[in-house]
């Protein structure tokens, strides 16, 4: 166990309790059984492992997926274990040695994440087909599709009351959905890169999000739905988020090879764990809050004791030394519109960097229980090359302060110079955080102004296009009118011509009939015969 870098904020580090080996690829997801008797994990080796904490029980290996397992989660009762895979399927396992399962098919792309409803009757899944789907656990039937993202959906979560669902996508958006109304009610735009993790606060009033921009953001989900906290958390993309049962702490894992625990009440980093070789793909708190588990690119699953109770005892001791109770920033509750903060002793709603606290990087103790046994045939290895380990010269986080003139309250005479220095350091840290928060608000204000300008420009363009369209409509109407007049004139001329033809036809029908050609020839023949007879009579008379 590493020594604490400062007695004020870091009296204890997490303690490594168990190390499980059995995966043959990156461990993408971990999940505790609600009874805390089992831990499930899934990875790139296409298998689901169930680790039993009783030494007398072996681990179970479930084989059935045809591609990497991206997510695993126990149901709220612990009777089922759900797994999501790149093979486009979701499987519901019974976490016993038999490993019976049912398969759910419906997505047209790989399934990246899943989340049970609090009552365990519904299951939410997120997929590369850009949708989320809600399923009935008992009937394995499809209930509804949530569409709205324009790229892969990498993360999803159900709220503690089951009425809301959250999703994060490669389109850089975080969407909040109404499960009953089946539509999107809020979209958060502040992430500049893909969003890979979302997690609801246990009281349901806040949502934590993280992604490839290496930051963590905490949003207020009440009426204002504004940004509460921003952490420049890691040096590489964040892969997972998990809230502690109390809601006071948040654990995150990253490709930078670290797992970090954050005190979201005070708005600072509690400690850093550097134990895995390569990136850390998953992390989750146990339901009782006493442990958290991590899985990484080194194919290992580790279980840690949080030791948060020791941090709380130190906080109470410091408060007693000041002659009063510690003033802490309370995360939003259903009874308050904004966090209540005593500026003289606690932090404001914060913009916090990963360097805002002297947190030790903890290397695990060498003595750790390793479980290598597994039930069932070994899965074929599809192990990609693990992520590169962090360089050896990487140094622990350091607190960087900017000296400012502040009003220091009067200190008791019995307080030594060491505690005065610590209090001054805390005060400077608070000022840095408040300054960072103000800068963040200014950035958002500038961003909103840019958006308003873009909207105004778009409106002006629409007005111009509307004027041009009106001119085109008038021109078309004029052409139609002229064409109608020409058609009317042509029609009148045609009618007049037809009337004249009818009149001529009527006149022709009233005249005597014309003899046929045959009758005319017969008449001419008779005339010739008569002339011939006349000539014959004349010649006879002369003779």
Please provide a written account of the structure.
The chain is of the alpha+beta class and about 550 residues long. About 25% of the residues lie in helices and about 30% in strands. The chain contains three helices and 31 strands. A five-stranded mixed sheet has the order 26-27-28-1-31, with no helix packed on it. A five-stranded mixed sheet has the order 18-19-20-21-29. Strands 22-23-24-25-30 form a five-stranded mixed sheet, with no helix packed on it. β23 and β24 form a beta hairpin. The longest helix has about 90 residues. It is elongated and about 175 Å long. It starts with 14 loop residues before the first strand and ends with a helix. The N terminus is likely disordered.
